[in-house]
Please model this.
Amino acid sequence: MSKYDILFRICIAILIGGIIGYERESKNRPAGLRTHILVCVGAAVVSLIQLSIIEDTISLVTMYPKLSGMLGTDMGRLGAQVISGVGFLGVGTIIHTRGSVKGLTTAASIWVTACIGLALGLGYYFISFTATIGVFVVVVCMKRIEENFFDKIKLITIEIQYYNKGNLNSDVCRYFWNKHLKIEDVSYAIGKEESKDLFKKCYYTVLVTKHTNLDKIQSDLNKFKQIVKAVITE
Model:
């Protein structure tokens, strides 16, 4: 297998992983553009290692026929155990919170780094260096693409102070529905103002994008008759 074949296959892995990851990223799924590319590149590196092992084994047996018994052994068995084991390490970097999953890209980068480490240990330096450059470009450059071209979702908390609940919840829900924003959670509490007048508090946890105008939402909520004060925290 020539160096051009290796370079071409890793580039194709980046392209194919990017196409699938783009579709997932556009729908705001946890595993997005970079995660799909890293996993695809890692799988490609493992496949290239396996092919290279086979080619090297055949060449060695051709030179030394007495070593023909090597063809019946699984040369990639230990490597497969490393790849599986590192998968558990990657799981430890994934954090799930309400409405979002974090750490998938880090987990994928750990896994693909292990694949590159296997290639280095086996002496396939061109595969390792080519994959490393590809991974670096994906992790650094693709992050900027994600930030500029994709609408990332985040959670905000809105503290609402009110005197009389009435139809407040339905009015607020209708407002967010018209804004195409999703309410993740609603909770209620009781407190007292400095003037000692009894009032109540409720907290809305809402999914928004980076393009959502939070100042406008806060201003609109403060215009509700039942609301004394609405404050947004990120």
The chain has two domains: 3-149, 153-233.
